[in-house]
Amino acid sequence: MMESNPSLASLIDSASAAVAELSGQTARWRAAAPGRVNLIGEHTDYNQGWVLPVAIDRYTAMAAAPGVPGQIRVRSLAIAQESSLSLDQLHTPHRDPWMRYVQGVIAQYDSRGVHCPGLDVAVASSVPPGGGLSSSAALELATAHLLEAVTEQALTGSERIEACVQAEREMAGVPCGIMDQTVVELAESGQALLLDCADQTARSVPFDSQAPALLVIHSGVSHALAEGAYAQRRADCEQACAQLGVNTLREVSPDQLARLKDEGVLLQRATHVVSENQRVCDAVTAIEQRQWDRLGALMTASHRSLRDDYEVSCPELDLLVELATAEPGVYGARMTGGGFGGCVIVLVASDRLEAVAGSVSGQYNEHMGWAPGCYRIQAGAGAREICTAL
Ligand code: ADP
Ligand code: MG
Hints:
Elements: H1 8-23, E1 29-40, E2 50-66, E3 71-76, E4 81-86, H2 99-111, E5 119-125, H3 135-151, H4 157-171, H5 179-186, E6 191-196, E7 201-206, E8 213-222, H6 226-244, H7 265-288, H8 292-308, H9 315-325, E9 330-336, E10 341-348, H10 353-368, E11 373-377, H11 383-389
Parallel strand pairs: 3-5
Antiparallel strand pairs: 1-2, 2-5, 2-6, 3-4, 6-7, 8-10, 8-11, 9-10
The structure holds adenosine-5'-diphosphate and magnesium ion.
């Protein structure tokens, strides 16, 4: 079943109404940031490679009014919870894990000389929390822009991104890369963002309404192995680099892989990273030349590589990709995100999107006993562009 998608304006209205109810005052400041999905380039970020995400037309919106001095009260409509944070406790992780994302950003700004006054805040969101569409980066960047509106002090774009990355790493305790916050901040409407994770330079790649549609399907599972496996994959990549005598797998060409002493797991891991980097570059060319069959084939090849060489897929994601790629009108499909659950992304002809979502959901339900969440995604604007227009 296709999940509904309320407009940004209605999310802003909901957050504004909720803050009025919470504080008894009209909302004075507003901010919003989108979620994101990665088209291709998985597990390449920490290998200093390339990724190709888009910001999506789903958002986290925040509204605020002046509050009690020294205190931030936050009501989240998305998770139906309310919590408060004492501004003299900024650097001790909050007892409510979700508040740490807001707290982390406020703390990062505080250490950069931007001090948050007492506030009442409400959050409304159409980015499903924990759904692989980066609700965490959306919440962080919305908080960052809200704070800048309140204090009338602005960081530069790269400082803002860095503050949000550090908030997630240090306060929420998630060892994330830079992709989510970068694309959520910098994306432009109708464009994917080619991001070079080595030097953090980015360039837009047109992915407008002429491109096929994007369908994201959430498997409904999130396997516990993810964290340990992530650390293990990073260690495998480091070991492969040591054997090859290079600093990063980015520098390695396909024929150099033969120099690896280990012809087992390390060769598999390195093969994925090296081939995935090539696929990202090829995907950019395919998009620029509007070769959608080619882009789809690269996405499906990416999935196979993640499944067989990097071994971060799971039966549920494999089933969704298999079902989707068997449908007429589908160019290609792959798991997106770290793996072991979460979402697949499907490149599909626009006029086939509803039919494909219905058919894949029905068959998945028959196999698994539950229907997956389906999201129609369009490449949307980043937080910078959204907040400038608000
Ligand atoms: P993802 O970023 O893929 O959605 P994460 O696990 O990185 O998943 O982040 C999800 C967490 O972020 C949630 O469990 C919650 O703690 C927090 N979060 C995200 N959006 C909201 C929101 N609108 N309201 C409250 N907490 C949120
Ligand atoms: Mg996240």
